[in-house]
Amino acid sequence: MYSLDIFLLLGLGLFSIGLIGVLLRRNALFLLMAVELMLNGANLILVTFARAHADSMPAAMAGHVAVLVIISVAAVEAAVGIALIVALSRTSQGNINVDTLGELQG
Q: What HEC string does 3-26 produce?
């Protein structure tokens, strides 16, 4: 049986990689993927804590319900984000750099 520390470190690693991607990248598609990594890292940590407290049933179920809510929010966020990126790439001649999006006004 694996120790829960491994899963916590893996979740922290995923969240950290996503956070670094959000802070360093300027491409909208990379930002969307980095946010998805952060959500997956948070999901893994929530499931790990739910597994650690499996003896108390309401706490374990609350963790799993929170993960399901986050997964559904992530799916909606990805669909809306990709639709926005496609619309931005059409209006800005293929440039989806978030630093230059302010230049599209006017």
A: CHHHHHHHHHHHHHHHHHHHHHCC
* pLDDT for res 18: 96
Q: Give 49's contacts (C-beta < 8 A, 6+ positions apart).
A: 63
Give per-residue pLDDT as tens, 12-28: 999 999 999 999 988 88
Cβ-contact 12, 41 below 8 angstroms: yes
Give the model confidence (pLDDT) of 92-105 as tens digits: 777 778 777 666 56
Which residue in 23, 19, 50 sits closest to 35, CA to CA? 19
- Report the CATH number of the 4-94 domain: 1.10.287.3510
Please say if the pLDDT value at position 9 is more than 70. Answer: yes
Would you list the domain boundaries of the chain? 4-94
Residues in Cβ contact with 50 at an 8 Å cutoff, skipping those fewer than 6 apart: 59, 60, 61, 62, 63, 64, 67
Q: Report the alpha-carbon distance of residue 106 to residue 95 in Å, rounded.
A: 17
